[in-house]
């Protein structure tokens, strides 16, 4: 296994890195049409379309009665999970909830201008849909993704949360998924996966209520479905494969850095794992450690493909140049494995999340620390932010003027309207000043 090696001294070296980086975004033109066909079948066929897709891809004997998972089944699932694991889930949930409580915004009203009242109402969406992949036919449930997507919605005040997840071969959902949903108080759970689950949430079916907002991770089919349904429902983001960039100096430990790179590479063949360092010895040692650690990974083949295609070791002349390159890459995860990471915070402009110091691996954020792990990918951290309470809220402007204020402003409003060629707008303002 070999990672790419780049030398980056400044902007003149960026085109080669950019060309390599952009290759991760090459779309499959056949996927979009396939997803469009799936969504149309769900729109017109409702529950029966969902059952048909479930039978084809997940559970051959799936029935419409299995679509909705009963509350009794969710409650019983708690008994199938050890007390130790339940306590761990609850502790992680508490950390995540505590962090997101700080994101809550308040409605406000201003009377700063005499005669004019302006303000903003903050309201949650009424109903949110969560898509949580099952992983390996339900054998590896994404518990952390359920927590990270459900808790911001709950903190926002969303009244109704609908959970969908693909069924296993026997038509059931993993007890860990159901137990986590039960602990969070989610009562509407449906066994349905992939693009057809997203379609069911967006259109509504006989069983699944139509939602106002859809959040949750997924493969290219799920992501494409969410993108195609943007005019019908809100979504969290159009996310791509996972990525990490690590800026390391001579104080970093190559063994730890290699482990952190592999924690991203094992996600997906399209995942990207990059180390930037001014120390050539660190880069050499990381390459050796990657080969050593890769051999014992259960997901060795996936990680090896990721590292070969989208892994990189990049040498820079000094940390300042490394920070500038990190901003160019705008990664989902940025680890600062350097002696004084806090001194570099002011230089960070583009990153989904920043992990400071040698004892703050990306996995800490994935599972336990509290900040959301649903983050912008593929360089979109240049303009996008991670999933938050705000994604589940709407902002409504308030405007109220008294007669004196409007009398003073009507002529100005009319003039601006006529500059745009909108005479009816101008007359709407002027008519209120006529007796």
Structural overview:
- The structure is a single chain.
- By secondary structure, the protein is α/β, with parallel strands linked by helices.
- The chain has 3 domains: about 5-25 and about 240-380, Rossmann fold (3-Layer(aba) Sandwich); about 45-235, Rossmann fold, CATH 3.40.50.1980; about 405-435, no CATH class.
- Helix content is about 45%, strand content about 15%.
- The strands form 3 sheets. The protein has a 6-stranded parallel beta sheet, with helices on both faces.
- α6 links the parallel β5 and β6.
- α2 packs across α8.
- The mean pLDDT is about 95.
Topology:
Blueprint lengths: L3 E4 L6 H9 L6 H17 L1 H11 L10 E2 L1 H8 L4 H19 L6 E3 L5 E9 L2 E5 L11 H14 L3 E6 L9 H10 L3 E4 L2 H10 L9 E3 L4 H9 L5 E2 L7 E6 L5 H12 L6 E6 L2 H15 L5 H11 E5 L3 H11 L3 E5 L15 E4 L5 H6 L25 E9 L1 H17 L3 H8 L5
Parallel strand pairs: 1-12, 5-6, 5-8, 6-7, 8-9, 10-11, 10-13, 11-12, 13-14
Antiparallel strand pairs: 2-7, 3-4, 4-15
Helix pairs in contact: 2-3, 2-8, 2-9, 4-7, 5-6, 5-7, 6-7, 8-9, 10-11, 15-16
Q: How can the largest sheet be summarized?
A: 6 strands, parallel
Question: What is the CATH class of the largest domain?
Answer: Alpha Beta
Structural domain tally: 3
Helix vs. strand class: alpha/beta
Gyration radius over CA: 25 Å
Briefly note the CATH topology name of the largest domain. Rossmann fold
Give the N-to-C terminal Cα separation: 83 Å
Mean pLDDT: 95
Beta-strand percent range: 15-25%
Which residues sit in consecutive blocks of at least 5 with pLDDT less than 50?
none
**Tally of helical runs:** 16
CATH superfamily of the largest domain: Nitrogenase molybdenum iron protein domain
CATH arch. level architecture of the largest domain: 3-Layer(aba) Sandwich
Q: Which range best describes the helical content: under 10%, 10-25%, 25-40%, 40-55%, 55-70% or over 70%? A: 40-55%
Shape: globular
How is the largest sheet built, in terms of strand order?
1-12-11-10-13-14
């Amino acid at each position: 296994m070999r990672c790419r090696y780049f030398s980056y001294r400044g902007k003149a070296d960026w085109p080669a890195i950019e060309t390599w980086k952009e290759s991760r975004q090459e779309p499959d033109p056949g996927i979009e049409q396939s997803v469009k066909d799936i969504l149309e079948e769900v729109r017109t066929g409702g529950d029966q379309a969902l059952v048909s897709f479930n039978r084809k891809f997940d559970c051959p004997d799936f029935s419409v009665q299995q679509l909705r998972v009963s509350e009794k089944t969710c409650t019983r699932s708690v008994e199938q999970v050890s007390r130790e694991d339940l306590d761990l889930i609850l502790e992680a949930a508490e950390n995540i909830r505590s962090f997101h409580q700080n994101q809550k915004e308040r409605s406000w009203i201003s009377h700063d201008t005499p005669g004019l009242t302006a303000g903003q109402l903050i309201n949650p969406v009424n109903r949110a849909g969560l898509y949580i992949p099952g992983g390996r036919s339900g054998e590896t449930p994404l518990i952390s993704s359920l927590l990270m997507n459900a808790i911001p919605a709950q903190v926002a005040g969303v009244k109704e949360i609908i959970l969908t997840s693909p069924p296993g071969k026997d038509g059931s959902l993993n007890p860990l998924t159901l137990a986590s949903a039960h602990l969070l108080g989610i009562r509407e759970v449906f066994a349905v996966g992939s693009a057809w689950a997203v379609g069911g949430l967006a259109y509504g079916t006989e069983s699944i209520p139509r939602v106002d907002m859809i959040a949750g991770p997924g493969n290219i089919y799920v992501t494409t479905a969410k993108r195609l349904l943007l005019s019908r429902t809100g979504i969290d983001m159009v996310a791509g494969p996972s990525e990490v960039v690590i800026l390391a100096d001579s104080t970093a430990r190559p063994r730890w850095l290699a482990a952190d790179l592999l924690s991203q590479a094992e996600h997906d063949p399209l995942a990207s794992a990059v180390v930037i360092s001014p120390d050539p010895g660190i880069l050499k040692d990381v390459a050796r450690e990657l080969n050593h650690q890769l051999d014992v990974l259960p997901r060795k083949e996936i990680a090896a493909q990721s590292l070969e295609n989208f892994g990189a070791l990049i040498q820079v002349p000094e940390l300042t140049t490394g920070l500038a390159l990190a901003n160019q890459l705008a990664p989902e995860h940025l680890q600062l494995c350097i002696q004084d990471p806090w001194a570099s915070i002011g230089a960070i402009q583009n990153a989904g999340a920043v992990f400071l110091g040698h004892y703050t691996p990306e996995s800490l954020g994935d599972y336990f620390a509290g900040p959301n792990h649903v983050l912008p990918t593929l360089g979109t951290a240049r303009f996008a932010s991670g999933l938050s309470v705000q994604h589940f809220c709407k902002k409504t402007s308030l405007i109220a003027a008294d007669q004196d204020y409007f009398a003073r402003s009507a002529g100005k409003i009319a003039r601006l309207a006529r500059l745009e060629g909108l005479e009816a707008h101008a007359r709407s303002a002027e008519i209120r000043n006529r007796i």
